[in-house]
């Protein structure tokens, strides 16, 4: 898919709502935005975001809404809008960021991924969402704990794995309980 360097420069909120995963613990309200003019189906992007955020290996339980108040905005952005939204951070048009109000997801990375993920675009997309939303929940960058180990999700895996293995999840070892209830984790 060809991703334009620049689109409209304006976000549109993706209409729709989705409940949090079952379980206990805090619920984080969020909404999804897509820059107008990008070649992605906004509803499909929003569904991918919701699946990632509500996976039991994720940070918390997330409720998608289409109006505020929200704790997090997840915004699919052209490289040019990413550069503008991420200032003063320098993304070079290729990185994503948290800008204090939204997780700015670079559409080029969303479409192409990075070599470190060995062509597993789905896993890389989980990482992008988990990492940038993690910033919105107050988590900071972490280093690789050692060669061959899983990279913490807050490692800057888009830049390098530093001899770690790729990992898209905050809690990669968590599994659903037999009762269907999920872990109680507060962001």
Automatic annotation (TrEMBL):
InterPro entries to which the protein is assigned, alphabetical: DUF3152
Region Disordered: start-end pairs: 158-187
Domain of life: Bacteria
One family name in Pfam for this protein: DUF3152
Biased composition (Basic and acidic residues): 172-187
Positions of the DUF3152 domain: 4-162
Name of the protein this chain belongs to: DUF3152 domain-containing protein
Organism name: Nonomuraea zeae
């Amino acid at each position: 898919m060809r991703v334009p360097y620049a689109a409209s420069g304006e976000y549109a909120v993706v209409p729709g709502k989705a409940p949090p995963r079952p379980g206990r613990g805090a619920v984080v309200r969020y909404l999804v935005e897509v820059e107008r003019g990008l070649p992605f189906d906004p509803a499909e992007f929003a569904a991918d975001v919701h699946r990632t955020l509500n996976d039991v290996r994720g940070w918390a339980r997330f409720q998608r809404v289409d109006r505020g108040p929200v704790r997090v905005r997840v915004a699919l952005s052209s490289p040019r809008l990413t550069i503008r939204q991420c200032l003063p951070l320098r993304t070079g048009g290729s990185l994503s960021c948290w800008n204090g109000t939204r997780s700015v997801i670079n559409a080029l990375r969303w479409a192409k991924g990075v070599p470190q993920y060995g062509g597993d675009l789905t896993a890389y997309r989980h990482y992008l969402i988990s990492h940038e939303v993690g910033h919105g929940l107050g988590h900071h960058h972490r280093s690789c704990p050692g060669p061959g180990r899983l990279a913490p999700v807050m490692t800057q895996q888009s830049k390098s794995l530093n001899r770690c293995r790729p990992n898209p999840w905050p809690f990669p070892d968590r599994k659903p309980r037999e009762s269907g209830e999920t872990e109680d984790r507060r962001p």
